[in-house]
Amino acid sequence: MLKTPEERIRLLIAGFSCKAIEKMYIEQNGFKITNLPLYIELVEFEITNFKKPATSEMAVECT
Length: 63
Hints:
Layout lengths: L4 H10 L3 H11 L27 H7 L1
């Protein structure tokens, strides 16, 4: 089911959303969706020993 564009267009005209049509297509054709878990670790740094910020004159001296 839903193999041809015409079938999907009929469902769009009937009022189905694109997401609903995609879900039906996946379920009825036996596809499996695999999602990798997204893992983001936020790290905060506390800087206590820092030098005076560089100025544009310092940058010119280095070059």
